[in-house]
Amino acid sequence: MLAYLLVSGLTTGSLYALMAIGLVVVYKATRVVNFAHGELFMLGGFFAYALHVLAHVPYVLALVAAVGGTLALGLLTERLAYRPLIRAPTVSLVLAAVGFAYVLRGTAREIWGGRGDYIPFPPLIRAEPITIGSVLIVPQQLVVLGGALLCMILFVLFFNGTRAGKMLQATAENAKAARLVGIRVERVYAFTWGVGAATAGAAAALMAPLTLIYPDVGGALLIKAFAAAVLGGLGSLPGAVLGGFTIGIVENLAGGYLHTSFQEVSAFVVIMLVLIAHPSGLLGAAPARRI
Amino acid sequence: MHIARRLSTLSLLALALMPAATFAQTPGVTADTIKIGSFGPLTGPNYLFGKLVMNGVEVVYNEVNKAGGINGRKLVLVREDDRCDPATAIAAVKKLIYQDQVFMINGGGCSNAAIAARPEIEQAKVPWVVFAAVADEVTMPTSPYIFSTALAASLESYAQLDFALSHGGKKIAIVSQRDAWGRSRYAPLLEAFKKKGITPVADEEMPADANDGTAQVLRLRQAGADAVIMLLYPKAAAIFVRDAQKLGFKPVLVGQTALSDPLAFRDQVGVPGALDHFFTINQMRYTPEDAQVGKWRTAMQQEFPGDRLSVYNLFGIGSAQVVVEVLKRAGRDLTREKVRDELAKLRGFETSVHPGPVTCSEADHQCHKTPAWIQLVGDKIQLVAVTPVTR
Q1: Could you tell me where the beta strands, DSSP code E, fall in B4-160?
Q2: Residues A82-126: pLDDT tens digits?
Q3: Per residue in B249-292, pLDDT tens?
Q4: Coil, helix or strand for B88?
Q5: Is the ipTM of this complex over 0.90?
Q6: What is the DSSP string of B166-231?
Q7: Considering the entire predicted model, what is its pTM?
Q8: Of A146, A165, B186, B202, which residue is the least packed, with the fewest Cβ within 10 Å?
Q9: Does the distance separating the beta carbons of B261 and A12 come in below 8 Å?
Q10: Which neighbouring-strand residues pair with A241?
Q11: Which of B178, B247, B270 sits opposite A123 (nearest CB)?
């Protein structure tokens, strides 16, 4: 039982982690939580569906296109909902993101809302479970886990090994200083929104066979991703990964060993306990004190 | 003499105008038309429960009109969009009753919206035949003017337990979502268990938007359940059935009308063989592909080019046939009270799509009491049983 619960927890946890990474990337640079992130995930799923299922484009190309499509949408979000309000109070920025989320969701409902409600996405490899050790696993779970880990590795390489990644980190650390050394901060912000959205697109294309696709799929996932980001320490990328996996595993263990009625609430109880003991999250930096 | 002549002329005039005066007193009825209102979601993700059902209603009304109408009057359908939203539904029925002045209502697609609209309709004493909303609160406690041709949620729960028992279930378990929809079925299901003196071997929860059902499946398997009653929407149900198949857990899986399209459900589950032991309820006797509904398939394509016949159209067709029948029985001298009385007297009425006879009474306004049990065999949906259900 434990092995099954852990494998399932890791799979759903990887989804939360990928989503949380997207949130954290944007938050690190802009100090704004992108509440349209769930809808970007949803649209990423529909992009992949339209290309792979309807237009019969090979899956890998559909995944790349979904990532590209959500990246473009992220740039659009930044242009329409963030940049015009860049000097406005944070609450205005948050409300703009929420409003944009409704626009995206409403658009998806108009286009895909009435086609069977929950649209299936075929698994990428055989649908029959396989046995690894003594544990039966749906191969798609392995695809998701592998894909999520690959995305995370690519992120690490991007942030630490590329000029763009370093510019992004520099802007996140101190926007004024970054501007002084010649970094075009506005471009970095736009790029950040795009990259954050692209992770949602990647997560959606990977997870669609497990989650199904429908216009409201992003709402609940956003809450879990946000919870993962907070648990890990809002602003910490490794924290987002750790938070995502922790929530996935805790949910499954609580559901399996206590009762399934604890499944939803368990992760939030853990978050509360962690934040009481460590207010900046598992890997978040402690706030600087004035002496 | 002069006064007497004037009085007799006035009397003759009054007599001549009497029928018109009677129609004028009955809202929505003229010498040659009966205006019937309908409300439900015409737009948004739930349009299946409104627009498509109303299309089915309209096809029946048009057929009746082509044949000369009812007692010399043509039926006129007035549609209002409630978007499944309670506040919008209240505004919609107010418009239908007071602005459009409909004679009666044949509508109600979503339970929450229909429940919200109920007091307004009840107060106006407008006969209402509910076509798709299934929550018990729409029709219970009984209201003199409100009747339903949809299978009530509580009756489905009773039927699910009966089905599990009739298929050899000795250790019956429940997996349910506990939102408003789930609770409206969960409470009567527990009541059904209690009445039969049975205790479920396991009672698990699953969120409607769950992405994993491993914990639920493992717990049910551990409890040794041989039949599982699923009070789940398609997404959670698909995840549960997929994970049950993955973990080799193969009890009898008992669904309900939220899962009444096994072909779509098979695609959502996506694992071969997962539906081998899955049975579910269809509100109607036929699926849209059945030869018996060929007439409606053709009519639907003619009236709404590009639309394929769906099960939601069939809800409307059956409900509209009930409306037509009671209007016929109420006669030419039409009043809302007569329609109310005819609805309460309707016994054993066979529509062309309901699995069993539609029967109402003074005390029971949930007139559809016969679920059809279906199963997917290969690519074909097969009728397994048609069993009347009682509480």
Answers
A1: 33-40, 74-81, 104-107, 128-130, 146-151
A2: 888 877 888 888 888 888 888 888 888 778 765 556 888 887 776
A3: 999 999 999 888 888 889 888 888 899 999 999 999 998 889 99
A4: helix
A5: no
A6: HTT-SSEEEEE--SHHHHHHHHHHHHHHHHHT---S-EEE--TT-S--HHHHHHHHHTT-SEEEEE
A7: 0.83
A8: A146
A9: no
A10: none
A11: B270
